[in-house]
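Narrative summary of target 7.
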Amino acid sequence: MRLVGPLAAAVIAMGSLTACDAIQGVSNTADKVKLCADAISLVGFTPDMSDPQKALEETQAKAKELETLAGSAPDEQVKKALEEAANGMQNVNSAADWVQQKADLAAKVSSACGG
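Modeled conformation, tokenized:
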């Protein structure tokens, strides 16, 4: 009889850990979904080409935001895709270059995010 109390407590504790793990998993998935949605939005950015210099500056600013997201990426595949997209955005010589590159980079980010 004395063993039943501690055994029951252990079973309850294990059930609580499993529930906590499940909640943590849901939270991680929600974080990844939000991060990926933000990243795809940044990668999908289309600058206003009427002012090429301003468009280039805006593109590079979006790249910095993407780098910040990469730093909080939940897994290595997503982080790598976001870093690659950020590098692509920062290394454009003109906004027109970015428009040509963005489809490929958006596809890579989307693929890494599971979509």
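The two ends are 54 Å apart (CA to CA).
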